[in-house]
Amino acid sequence: MAEEDKFDVAVVGAGPAGMMAAGIAASLGQKVVLIEKNSELGKKLLLTGNGKCNLTNAEFSLRELASHYNNGEFLFRAFSVFGPKETIEFFEELGIETRVERNKKVFPISGNAEEVLSALRKHLSGNKVKIIFNSEVVDIIKKGNKIEKLVAGGKGIIAKKYIFSTGGSSYPLTGSNGAGYRLIEKLGHTIVKPIPALCPISIKQEWEKKLQGISLKDIKITVICNQKKELSRVGEILFTHFGLSGPTVLDISGKVGDLLEGHEVKVRIDFFPLINQEQLFKNFNSVLTKSPSKTIKNVLSTFVPERLAEVLLAVLKINGDRIANSISKIERGAVAKILKNFEIGVKDILGFEQAMVTRGGVSVKEIDHKTMKSKIINNLFFAGEIIDIDGTTGGFNLQECWSTGYLAGKNARS
Fold it and tell me: Cβ neighbours of residue 180 under 8 Å, at least 6 residues apart?
C-alpha cells in the first residue's frame, strides 16, 4: 500500500456535508482525503434554491430551528456549535456576502450557487484536502468494531477515521442514489426506510389538469389520515398537471409519504384561513346580493381564480352559468364551506427523481449527537442527508449538512 493512500481522515461523498467535514478536519491539521463518485464536487449543491443556493435560514432560536426537522431534537448540539449564525459567518469569511429574503431564507448576494461551490473548492484546496474523483466506494473492510480500509477505484484507502456523507436517494442523477445505505447496513447500522421528501403530491381527482399553473399564497393545507387531522401548514401552493406542488405541499410531503403506508390520506385546503366560515358566507352573500344578474361563476371568480371557481362549482354540482339571485341559501352555504374545506384524495407522492431530500437513513439512535460518531463502529462518523433527518424548505436541509459536517469534521481527529 502506497504511503499516499494512508490518511488521518477519509470523507466519502463530496456534497455540502462532505465538503464541510473535509475542510474542517483539514483545517485542524488532519491529512484528509475526500472521495467522490462524480467527476466534480457538489452537483446537488448547484440545484439548491433553483440555482441561487439557499444557504441557510436566519432562524436563530434553537428550539424554533429544530422544529423544522424530522428528528430535529437530535440536532440541538450541532446547531448550538455551528448554527445559522456561524454558517453565515463561515461563508462571509470565504468571501460570500449574503442577504436575507422572505421567510428568513439566506442567499448569496450574487444569487449564484456556483460562487458558493467555488468558495468551498478554495477552502478545500487551501487546507490541502486530497480529492479523488470518479471513485465509488464499493466495499468496507472492518475488523471488530473498527474500519480498516475502504475499497474504491480499484484500490484500498486507509484512514484512522472515516466520515460518510454519501447523501440519500433524492435526485439520483447527481449520484445520490442510496448506495451508501447498503455499505453502512453491512457494518451493522439500522437504516430507516428511505422515502422521498420535499416532493410534489399526485391526487386521485380527474380535474387536476384544469387547474395546472394556478399558484395561491397564504393557503392553509391540512393532512387528514383516517378522518384524523395530522398536521397543517399555511403558505404557497401550486396546482400541477398531476396534482399539488409549491413550498407548503413540499413541506408536508414527507409526512404524507409516511401516512400512505396502508392508509387513506386526504389533504384539506382552506383558501381563506384568516376568516371563519360564517364571515366568508357573509362576504360571499354580500357580493351575490350586489350583483344579482351576474353568473355564480363570475361572482365566485372574485374570490378565487376562474378555473378554480369552475372546478369548485362542478364538485358542488352547481351550474356555473346560473345567475346569482337564483342561488339558494343552502347552495351559498355550500360554496362558503368548500372554500374553507376543499378535500382532495392523495394518490401518492412523486418519486426520488422529483424529491429534494430523503426521509429515512441511518438511525439517529445509533449516532452520538454530540460528535456525529457511530455508536457501533469506533472510527466512523456521519454527516448530512445520509442521517435520518430531513427539514422543511427554506435553507433548513443545507443547514443540517453544514452543522453535522462541521461537527463530524471537528471530532474526527486522531
Answer: 12, 13, 164, 166, 167, 386
